[in-house]
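Quick illustration, no need to memorize.
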Amino acid sequence: MKKVVLFGGSFDPIHYGHLKMIQSAIKQTKADEGWFILADQAPLKDNKQAPYETRLSFIQKMIKPFKKLKVTTIEKDMPKPNYTFDTIKQLQRLYPGITFVLLIGTDQAVQFNQWKDEQELLQLVEVVVYPRTLDPIDDVFTKLSGETFEVSSTQIRQGLSQETHPAILNEIIIHGVYGEEMLREFLHESRVQHSIEVAKLMAEFARHYHLDTQFYYGLGLIHDLMKQKEKDHELESLLSEEDKKNPPYTWHAIACHHYLSRVYKIKNRTFTNAIYHHVSGQSTSVAGMLLYIADKCERTRKYDTEGFIELTKRDLVKGFKAVKKEAKLYRDNKGANE
């Protein structure tokens, strides 16, 4: 009889630790396949999640090279709230010729007494536990062997880890999937709010010009990621001596370009170059001009920006030149008063 390891969760996002767990479980239980069960909303989690289809696409990107790995969306259309016990029973009805094994981590095992019908679940299916942490494992479970690991989905959402597939990292940044959560780890709240307003205005411009709204929203959201590090004088490791020949007020933009290119492997030059030049205004690409304008004209600025916004919607180049001229006047006046 075919044996399949089931691994359920929100996978928000999936990471290399998840991959290690299911591959180890397949090997140790001598299973034929491993199925990720993507939860619509995990019962013991109350945080806001990325959209279901986004998380599904992340899993698909991660497992694409592995023939033994699949993902099932069975929980998406099951009645809510849905619990693992219900899912296992439904899978056993749908696939009577398969023996299922349920994989959980030690972090889930210590919460197992909070699961719905947990004793009946133990009678329904073998539950195997991967030692994700050093927490003790109850004897009611089958214990797997394996190395513990520190990576978590939370760390990836916050920008504190990049331990997932490069294609997933690219989408996280370019589409701003966890952008607000990430910004709050890097920036003070006032700068977070500025970035959100820039992203909203970028999306507005994108809709007006029939551009990719997600791309422009993500660009606006992430553009100031290194701003606090500039203020705290923590950019040295990212900037070359050549970079430092630029005016200091542009360093955070240059550093953000380098950080996204090197750490997140972002290869979309339109995206990274727009960030590089968003302070200097030296990019004349559509993305570069719109980001420059949105950064200077987002609606919480302490001056009236609506005229520049409307001009930009009528004629992008004229709007860009007008904002750039105003910014130069501001810098000149500021320098004269210092």
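The chain has two domains: 2-155, 166-337.
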